[in-house]
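Re: weekly structure request thread

Next one in the queue (323 aa):
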Amino acid sequence: MLHDIIMSCPLKTLELNECSGLKNILIPCCSRLESLLVVETVPIGGTILVNTSSFQRFSYSGYGVCWPVSLMPASKKNLKELRIDNVYIESDSFGKLVSELPSIQNVKLSDCTMEKCITIASQTLKELRMRYCDDLYRVIMEAPELNTFCYHGNCLLTSVINSHNNYNAYFHLTVSNLDTRAFLIIKHLLIKSNGCKVLSVILSDETEVPEIKFDKGQVRNFGHRPPSEPKDIQELKLSLSFPHSVPEESSCRALIDGLLWCCRPEILSVSVTLRSDNPVIKMTVQLVSNKKRDDNLARRRSVDGGQMKMVLVCSGMSDANDE
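Done, posted below.
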């Protein structure tokens, strides 16, 4: 039935959302389809075969199965947007696929399991976004037109390299345990990734406040010796959400010490979701103020001579205290 609809109707957009009973989907060369959205429709063992040159946008959301899509040469020619969610991608097939799309501009990956290192070569890619891609450690790109690389995930990623430096990299790290080793990994990521503009660290715990530890003296114990200078970046965003309890002053101090050991931001944005009378707000401001007075951190920057600015954003606060 689906094949008959595709053949008989001049469809430009087709959405298949949790359609049961479908095993294979075929988009023939005579189709004028431009956009295809498939959500949890093709079962294990099924395939999606696309063979139309009008194809421009494709979004596939699976449920942990292997990548079931076969794009014929004609369908790759004009494909500009690609989104893949919740799929197991074997070997370096993702990097190979993107490299074979001569018109690709925007690629988004979410909740995918893939190889530890991917390599992408594209003359047209402008934006690459990756969210919680398990096992990914390194991204290597040859993408002269790339404007934005954005990564949301944990601290496993170690480096992102594009052979062309004129792009912006954004790292949004969600962490449940921050210690000296974690800070070391973050610093390596910043140092080894060109184009980094914004580092966002999200700490959220619904039950108890994690204990944060940082000791520069232990860095060598992990077999690494990162550059002593922190990485210059445009902005460090720190998001704190502790609705049930208050972090100890030692944890707040370790957090600020560790992050400012990793990077030297022009702007430090601290977002807190707490009661307004919670002492962590004043504690964070005081710790950052002390750091700004440190000669090593508050020295004038080599390019524009500016010093670090702090922005504090408070949300979800009660009216118990207006300070």
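The first helix runs from residue 2 to 8. Residues 295-305, 317-323 have pLDDT under 50 and may be disordered.
Next request, please.
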